[in-house]
Amino acid sequence: MLNPDKILQKAKTSSFYRTILNWSLARTIPFNKPHGFKIVELSDFRIKIMIPYRRSNFNHIRGLHACSLATISEFTTGFLLISNLDMKKYRLIMPRLEMDYHYQGKMDSFAEFTISKAWIDEYIINPLKTQDAVVVPCEVKIHDAQKNHLTTGKIFWQIKSWDKVKTKVS
User: Fold this and answer.
1) Reading across the β-sheet that carries 90-101, which strands appear in turn?
2) How far apart are CA 26 and CA 37, in angstroms?
3) The pairing of beta strand 109-114 with beta strand 38-42
4) Per-residue DSSP letter, 169
5) Does residue 77 fall inside a structural domain?
6) Are 71 and 107 in contact (CB under 8 A)?
7) What does pTM read for this prediction?
8) How far apart are CA 19 and CA 38, in angstroms?
9) pLDDT tens across 4-43, in order?
10) Using CB atoms within 10 A of its CB, is residue 147 exposed (0-12), middle (13-18) or buried (19+)?
């Protein structure tokens, strides 16, 4: 059986394990599968994901669709956050998403998001010692292969300890 934590750690330095991780994510998050997102770079506190320029991501004028760009922004930030937090301890919910569109995407493009251990401690871990939940804004930028700045997304994530969640998970 594949160990998700082991795959995640090895994917940071191995293209083979990044391929396994991408394959696993496509199977476990079926909503994202048609988009063909691929993690191309991954470290403890940085992620870069490609959105391919292909028909399933097009709008009516053959540019990258606004919704596919918003989806990759959500995925990029959420994946990096949850990979740095204990999924068994913390729950993430996206209460709000803001997107600014700057340039029409007409080729493969890349979403990048970076955080730090100090940022996690300052905005998540320490506040959760005295609050039931925190909402953190995460800024993600998307550039195309020619470095044109397509979008700036601000994804707001509510994070709380599972023992503070009042609704049941089935």
Assistant:
1) 38-42, 46-51, 109-114, 133-144, 149-161, 90-101
2) 8
3) unpaired
4) P
5) yes
6) no
7) 0.90
8) 8
9) 788 888 999 999 999 998 888 888 887 888 888 999 999 9
10) exposed
Residues in the chain: 170
**DSSP character at residue 58:** B
The pair of three-digit structure tokens given for residue 50, joined into one six-digit string:
């490609």
Report which DSSP code applies to 7.
H
Is 37 inside any structural domain? yes
Quote the pLDDT of residue 108.
97
41 lies in a domain?
Answer: yes
Domain that holds residue 8: 4-162
Q: Which of 30, 36, 136, 126 is nearest to 82 (CA)?
A: 136
DSSP of 65-92:
-HHHHHHHHHHHHHHHHHHHS-TTTEEE
Q: pLDDT tens, 54-98?
A: 999 999 999 999 999 999 999 999 999 999 998 889 999 999 999
The single residue listed with the structure tokens 């700045």 is: 149
